[in-house]
Design goal:
With about 100 residues, this protein is mainly beta. Helix content is about 0%, strand content about 50%. The chain has no helices and nine strands. The model has no long low-confidence stretch (mean pLDDT about 90).
Amino acid sequence: PNGSHVVSGSWDRSVKVWDIETGKCFQTLTVHTDAVNAVAFAPLGFHIASASWDMSVKIWDAATGECVHTLTRPGHGNGMSSVVFSPDGILIASGCY
């Protein structure tokens, strides 16, 4: 959100936060049990959302890397493929196929 960091998701089940200036990963978040398909920073930068094939969306504290919420889709066969915060950062939308 302030232009100094970027977040990525990976098939290795991790979410990584990168420093744009140095190009180095400075935080790796690893709680998902399957590939991470989508990630998003909240508008103010305090939280990160990640969507995974493990049928969950996780909300992370961007400062500490702690997973603070897990949203799941029990009973559905497909994992999550997209995630986005609302412009005010209060709501999250996610999708699957």
